Amino acid sequence: MLIKSAKFIISNSEVAKCPNESIPEYAFIGRSNVGKSSLINMLTQRKSLAKTSGRPGKTQLINHFKINDNWFLVDLPGYGYAKVSKKDKRTFQKYITNYFLQREQLVCSFVLVDIRHEPQKIDMEFMQWLGENQIPFCIIFTKADKLKPKVIERNVDAYIKELLTGVWEEAPQYFITSSSKNIGRDDILPFIGSINADFYERQKKPF
Ligand code: GDP
Fold it and tell me: Where are the chain's structural domains?
């Protein structure tokens, strides 16, 4: 998929105020510092698309970007940030939960995980919650350039194994990426492209 255009549309904290367009939407979420902004910039080949919305004060919002005029990339706030107060955490949880439960256009979410770390409780719980609510998601492992191929393989295997010892019968699809080495773009964009193609194909049919 060629990225012909990537435009920031709106930031807000209410799902009801998200753009009212029926185009497929993909959410990106993960712990703070996981490499989400870098990944979004790598995918869209824009130097600071995600950072534009990442100005202080904007980081805790739902950020919509329109790509190629036919899909939305949604940059959600990073979770698990220790400095956020309990009250802020609750508010955050509420609107993010609402976003996932209510956003009909959401066709797939990408949960970002730093490939160097062992499975973290907060990520596991979040994925479990997505599964329980039948919200489709994939895992994106980030920062793969920091490890040797053998270690990447070992860490991914350990991660998937951990998921399968939980409630999962089948592991979610996953992608291995590095924003600094431009790895993973050629897997993720065609994946999005094929979901988009199905979405628009279904719209053509009367039933
Ligand atoms: P965010 O908080 O999840 O948006 O994370 P950022 O994209 O701002 O990245 C957090 C830190 O990780 C920054 O110092 C980035 O330079 C670094 N980083 C992000 N992606 C990669 C990557 O693919 N490889 C390496 N080596 N560092 C990365």
Answer: 6-201
Ligand 1, atom 5: closest residue by C-alpha: 35
Q: What's the CA gap between 33 and 53, in Å, rounded? A: 15
Domain 6-201: which CATH number of 3.40.50.300, 2.40.30.200, 2.60.40.10, 3.20.20.140: 3.40.50.300
Residue 38 CA to ligand 1 center (angstroms) comes to 6
* Predicted confidence (pLDDT) at residue 82 exceeds the cutoff of 60: no
Q: What is the 3-state secondary structure (H, E, C) of the chain?
A: CCCCCEEEEEEECCHHHCCCCCCCEEEEEEECCCCHHHHHHHHHCCCCHHHHHCCCCCCCCEEEEEECCCEEEEECCCECCCCCCHHHHHHHHHHHHHHHHHCCCEEEEEEEEECCCCCCHHHHHHHHHHHHCCCCEEEEEECHHHCCHHHHHHHHHHHHHHHHHCCCCCCCCEEECECCCCECHHHHHHHHHHHHHHHHHHHHCCC
| pTM, 2 dp | 0.93
**pLDDT for the residue 76:** 93
Q: Is 36's C-beta closer than 6 angstroms to any atom of ligand 1?
A: yes
> What spacing in Å lies between the alpha carbon of 201 and ligand 1's midpoint?
36
Q: How far is the CA of 33 from the centre of ligand 1 (A)?
A: 6
